[in-house]
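Hello Y.,

Per our agreement to keep a running log of every chain we model this quarter, I'm adding this entry. I've kept the format consistent with earlier entries: sequence first, then predicted structure.
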Amino acid sequence: MGALVAGIAAGDAHAACGPQTVRQRDDRAPLILTGVIESGPQTPARLRVESWQKGTGPGAVDLDTGVYADYAFGEGIYPHPGERWRIFGQWHDGMVVTGTCFGSRLITAPPSGPPTLSAGSATAQAVPAGYGGRPLAGALPTLRVAPGRPRELRVPSEVGDLRLVGARGGAKLTRKKGRWTLHVPAGDRPGGGRLVADTGDAFYAVRLG
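Predicted structure for the entry above:
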């Protein structure tokens, strides 16, 4: 009966999950973390945390996966021991509540690695960072962009979204027909802003200078 209930719920719930962009998913989730499953899929599943990318917490957390002993919600996830997952969710009663509607996903491929961002002749390899563009360790590399005219950014295909965070002085980032353009007003600097890339498995960032 439990399997039947889960199967029926799954069809209903996936239809109920509205479409969302990478930007919307990242913005909406209070918590984003990556780690390895130690037990699951039944709630409470246990995740050994590799990195907190948005929000903070301990080195291991319990997940409310939406899967229980006798039933499962259709938007639940099914993480198994040894798998790496990127979890999007929120705290509730000491557990991280998550599901497919949050955007949580199994990481099946090896990490794509830090993307390299370029503008004109300037190039910088991004480093692992949190949602706000703060480096997880060390300092951010600098991508030096001359002001005065729009600069097209060359962005690797694995980058699903790119955000400009913390810039001052009128700098802005736009996207049109899949191309990213950085606008820095003449006589100004991007004011220590950060470019934050989401590759699907992690955030990476560079500092503008």
